[in-house]
Amino acid sequence: MDIERKYIMKVSVVTVTYNASATLEETMQSVFYQSYPYIEYIIIDGASADGTVNIISKYADKLSYWLSEQDKGIYDAMNKALEVATGDFLIFMGADDLFYTNDVIKNVVSQITDLDAVYYGSVLFKGRGTKHWGQFNKIKWAVTNVSHQAIFYPKVVYTTHSYDIQYRIYADYAYNLNLLAEKVCFIYVDEIITLYDMTGISANAHDEIFQRDFRGLVFSSVGRLAYYIGKCIRNLYFIKESLKSTYNKKRLENKE
Length: 256
What we know:
The protein is an alpha/beta fold and 256 residues long. It has 2 domains: 11-222, Spore Coat Polysaccharide Biosynthesis Protein SpsA, Chain A; 225-256. It has helices at residues 24-32, 52-58, 74-84, 104-109, 138-143, 155-158, 171-181, 208-221, 224-255, and strands at residues 11-17, 39-45, 65-68, 89-92, 98-99, 118-125, 151-154, 186-196. Helix 7 packs parallel to helix 8.
């Protein structure tokens, strides 16, 4: 659906939290400081016990909706947000992540021309200063995922698709691959969206069910050729990291 020139677009920003008192307030501030005025901010908390709820309550008047109750994991909480969001587009912002600048949402919205397309940018890893991937093609999709902190989902997508909570760590990757299989259009915007914290749950965890289903998800979304090329790239990456680890270990031993 094309957008009329004078259309005012609302963006839903969602933060899912659990015991995030150490970082949440800074994340919330990065949302509040956005220069784009038409933002709906939603926080879904998983019954935190560390003061997170006190921080949320402190800013309750600036929130469109918030909830604190037990859930079945991060993707169950994200699904709860999908049920209450009303924005034309929706983005998830981790409780330890930050919008890269105060103008990020304004800059992305200015480039949106299709209310049915998914728009995505890049993230910058905190502490590394490295940019995650940029524009994706089929092979990149077969290697890795776009960080969900860099994706703006249209209402036509997020109101009709939910996260499969059987995937404990990579339900967002499966979500995107399923959208690609349905021929949903993904459009890249050349913007760094988020300062991304690499210590999050998906950075250092393993999802056995997702790994079991990964080949089928990639086959149906970007094809067999992309899968096998991507597999070679992943294997080369693991070999490189293993060699690097071995080299660093021996260098430390020699110093001793």
